[in-house]
Structures are given as C-alpha cells and as structure tokens.
C-alpha cells in the first residue's frame, strides 16, 4: 500500500503550507529541493523554511505536491506526480447515508480550498484531479470558485467530480455549460426503482431530486459518468436500470458498474450487501448486452478479471487507485494480472469472491 | 401528461409496429392504436409508455431532456471525416452484364485522369476541412491505374492524420506492383463474388477460365492480407438468382463471414440488359427467402454468416449512431467531404449521381476539381436528402432508422417527388425493416442465435422487444 501521509518534521509554529518536491532543477518558488539525506530522513529546503520527510525514497516523491502540516508533523501527498489517481477530499460531510459507503460522513467540515488551489497550480501538465467527499457540492460555491481560480492559471487541468447529484439547481446551468469540456461528473444511480434507490442511499426523495438534476446535466451537455455499485439489494434490477439509462439518460458518456469496497459502511454492511458476481453474472450480463445493443458505453470497475465471464472482460477497467490496490497470493501465477484491477487493500478472501481462478 | 407523437404500421401478422421520432419503438395490437387515436389510453397503456420514455409532463424535466437527446442522436452529423470515391479510370477488363457505370474498353482513350486532374484532386484533398479520410477507388478497374492510386495514397498519408483506402477491384489481374501496394495495412479490398462458378461466369467474366483466374487471385489476396481486409459482395440478377445455400457456400468457401446482398442497380448498362431491375417485388421475396435460409444454415452449422445490410438496418433500429454506411443516413446532405470524383474530374454527390450523368439522363454534378464545388447546386440538392419532413415519411415508424435516395428516385422515375411507397428505395427499405422487426420479435432460437451473433450479444435482451399490454 502506498502511503498518502508521510511523517514530517518542521518548525511547529508555521502555518500549513504547500510545496512541490522538485524533480531536478527548481522551477518555481514553491519547489523544495533536497539538501541532504541521512539515515532515511530527507531534508528539503523550501522558500522560507526547511523540513524533513521520513520513510520514503527521494525518487518516489520527486514531483509530488505536499501539504505540510507542521502542528501534526505530517506531509499529505496531495498530488503524486506519477499516479493517475490523485483526489482532493473536499469535505467529509454528506447528506446521504449509502449502505456501501467507503468514506462514511462526518459532521465537521474543514475548508481546504486554499491549499487545494496551491496544489492544483503545481500539478503536472494536463493532469486530471479527482474531487471527492463526502459530498463536495455541499460547498458548491466554494468548489466552483476553486475550479475557476485553478483554471485562470492552469487551463490544462481537468477535474473528475464525484457527487451524489442532489445539489444542482437551474442557476448552475450557465456555469455547467461553460465548463463542460474539462469536467467529468461521476454520479451514482443504484436502481431505476425510486424506492430501492432511496433506500440504498438512505435519503427519502433522493431519486426524484437526482432525476431533475440529471436533466440539468443533460441540458448543460455535461460529461456524465453514471456509477452503480452492484449489491444484493439492486443486482436483479440491473437490466431494468440499463433500460432506464438508455431511455432516460442517453446523454450519459458511460455507465460504470462497480464492485463494493470493504471499508467504512461497506465493511459494516458487507455480508448484508456484497454480491458475489464471480458466481452469478446473469443480470450483469443482461444489463451489459442491452447497453451494447443500444450503443451506450459501459465499464466494469473493481472487478478482478477472473470473476468476469470471458466475453465481458474487455469492459473491465483497472479502476482501483494504486495506493489502495493489491493482488492475492494466488495472483502470482496469473497471466492476466498486468491488466487486472486486482483487489482493494481491505478485501478479505474469507468473505469475498468464491470464484478466483488465476488464468 | 403528454405522449410524444406515435406512428404505426401494420405488419403481416396484423400486429402494429409503433415508434416515435426518437426511434423508440414497440409492438401493439390494433386495439391499442384505436385507444391512442381516440385519446382513450388506459392506465396500463400510460404506465407502459411512461416506463419507456414515450411521455413527459413538462419541458426541462428528465423525460423531456432525454427525448430531445435521443432525437438529436438520430440525426446524422458529420464526424469530421471524409469519404471520397475516386474514379481514376473508367476502363475495365471485364464487361459485366449489369455494369452500372457503362465502363469503357481497356484500349479506349480519354477515360483516365490526366496529370492535371490528378494534381487538382490532390489540391481538392488538401482543402478538405477534415483530418480523417476514407478513399474508395472505383472504376472501371482502378488497378489499371496503379500509378494514380500510389500518388493519391502517398499524398493522403501525409495530409491526413488517418487515411484508409478501399480498392474496388475485379481481381482479374494481380502483379508484383499491385501486391506491394496491398501490403500496407491501410489498404483494403472490395470485390465482387456473384456466388457459384457458373453464375459468376454468366454475370461477369463470360469465361470459365477467367472465373478460375479470379478465384485464384481472391485466394492469393486473402492469404496475403487476411479476411479482415477483404470484403466481397454479390450482385443478384433477379432473372437468374443463385440458390441461397449455393451463394452462402461460395462465400464460406473463401472464409468470408459477411456478405452484402445487392440487387442489380438500375443504372448504366443495367437499364438495357436488366429492365426487371426497375421494380422490387421479386427482389423482396428473394431477399426474405435468402435471410431465412441463412438463419437456418447458421443454426445448423454453428458458423455464422452475416448479411451486412439486414444486420446494419437492425443496428439502426436498436440505436442511434450506426451511420458507417454512407448510403443509409439521415440527413445525408451532399458536401465535398462525401463525394465522388469521376474520371473527367467532375464531382458528384454519390456514385449513382455520376451514373445518371454518364447516361446523360441528368447532370447532377456538384462541381469539378478544376472549377471547385458548385454551392448553388449543393444548396438545391440538400433538401431532398432529409426524410424528416417528407409528407409520407412523417407517417412511417421507420423514418428515424431510414434515409433517402433522391438520385435513385430520379433514375427510376425521372423525378424525386413520387409518393414514397411508389419508390424503389421506400419499397426496399419497408421490406428490410419489416423483416428486421419480424426477426427481432421472433422467439425462434435459430433466429435469436443469428441475431445475437450479428449484434455481438450473449443473449437477446427482452427490453429490445417491448410489447404494449
């Protein structure tokens, strides 16, 4: 597992600050350069101070953008230069209580936009940055302002925003339209049946609200990625959901059908929710067939290749973020491992997929 | 609540195929249509329609936005790529009975591009506002002017980000230079294989020896560049149509998994030697019989042959965006990016248009590489290349899946405003779409097997064949 927080040492009286670990020569005043390395401790010089980073090799963090928290003596790796999976956690607040949530919500919100803006400005050229939560749009105005501010100097960046789609209104239409080229909206929908969807997300009326907001995204020409975690609760409704998507959400760029992540509420509700698609793929297959007959894109996230019938394997994406991805011991001998999404770090074999077969 | 307007058509089994402008379709019985026409839909009718996106309450709600999107996706809009057919020569070393372009003899003079026309064609390409192109070489026999083919290919590979070349050849002659040209991955072959030896000989070569030679060349090319880069199609003479089984065997024998059954085109020489090609009844029944033979055979052998056109029409029913076939799109407005450049440098909107000019029926040229495109003529032709507002098409459930062919109307009827049902294009497509719907709703495992294979599906989803209560 790749560490996203590193032990750091610096003057405790300083306020938190963002730096980029310079990769070779210093390019701007926010770049920090390595002064010396001793006993596994890396000593860096930034514009106004010096700091240390522990437990990591210099080459592994070269180009990374760090948020140094002097009070806690921690460095947050906000952007890892060599990863495609960089996400800013906008807030931990959320108005839904999804059964399988991997990041259960918290009451308190800490506004980090200032640091995210500094970090975005130091991101590699053309980077796509994930914006996630909690529910990022609970802080919609601050979020939109952050994106506008980032683009004033870095219009090469794009953002993949994960939102429950509950918080748009008609007034957002011009903003959504003018930003559509560089924003991808990942929005969950769990069922075409409003009652089932509302039950899964733990919020009465959520489906109705979502439906109106999907319409806004459609009218805005926004790039929309629908996301559906497959669970015991919704698997039999997947063919109907596919039919609903092709008829009611024809503007969606893609539909991601996802396997569960065993952490947060997902761990708590695992036995109640986890659907073993390695044993039974009929409804998934029917949903995929319908999507492909109607020429709408579908992808499979978080499905190990061997759990998918061979004809559908080309739809599987290597979707698990590098820092929390692993393979099992039996994957050692598998010839398709290099193309496989693998498993979440917190996956357990004893209550996971029954049909794991190295290829 | 409002229901988006529905159009309906009675099928041979008296069920009705019903569809809206966005191409959402379903089957119903006559009673449903009565209730719809009298504005007496009951609750289960309404529930059925709402679940399938046929209704809305108000503008800007999801049902409304979804319909607008589905409608918009049904309209063909150029994707920034060009498809240009080139006729570097009209000369040909065969003299097929149904030749639609009235080809010229091999020794004839004045039927090839000269250097000036070649230069102008290159300049025409240079000015196209696209980055991708597919160039189809037709003729005559294009390999008679391999020098021109090479010059075009060299230029296009430099000028465009992506270029692909299809040589429509009779494959009577292969030599080292031609084989070298074919070796490039971006070169494809399209040829004619009329089926059994004797029919191919009768229609095309008039000589068993020449047919033999063609067969040998076809095998050689398939070995060299593989079946993925070679396609063949049979032209069917309705006076002597091949037995479906024989025709399919002939294709299978060469390793083809797809064929495109085409009737003799009522153009060029074909008008004199094949007057029966003007009407369609015999074609339709032959075509249906062929498709059912194909389906039975696929089921029997477990090997699947595709009939391209029916599979394509089926794909167009099921979803928007199946616009790869340039003859069936809507709208299909003629532009320079979708054109035919003849041996004399004249530009036409379609291959059929150049044939009409060739027999001097009407000159539908939209310009020439020397003088450029004739914008006035393009504007004049445009409205007839869209079916959305045709007084007959607006009542047809197949309108969103279908297209138009005013050039063919002109060729057969001398005018483009005949009632649709009297036009060959309409008759042919009504029959194809009727057949596609019949197959789609069939519960015969043999039919489902073939359809799944054509569509790349594991199992035919029931949602693709809704039936009103």
UniProtKB/TrEMBL annotation, chain A:
GO molecular function: catalytic activity; iron-sulfur cluster binding; metal ion binding
Cofactor: [4Fe-4S] cluster
S-adenosyl-L-methionine is among the record's keywords: yes
Annotated InterPro entries: Aldolase_TIM, Radical_SAM_PqqE_MftC-like, rSAM, rSAM_paired_HxsC, rSAM_sf
Domain of life: Bacteria
Keywords: Iron, Iron-sulfur, Metal-binding, S-adenosyl-L-methionine
Matching PANTHER family: PQQA PEPTIDE CYCLASE, RADICAL SAM DOMAIN PROTEIN
The name this protein goes by in its record: His-Xaa-Ser system radical SAM maturase HxsC
Species in which this protein is naturally found: Paracoccus alkanivorans
Phylogenetic lineage: Bacteria, Pseudomonadati, Pseudomonadota, Alphaproteobacteria, Rhodobacterales
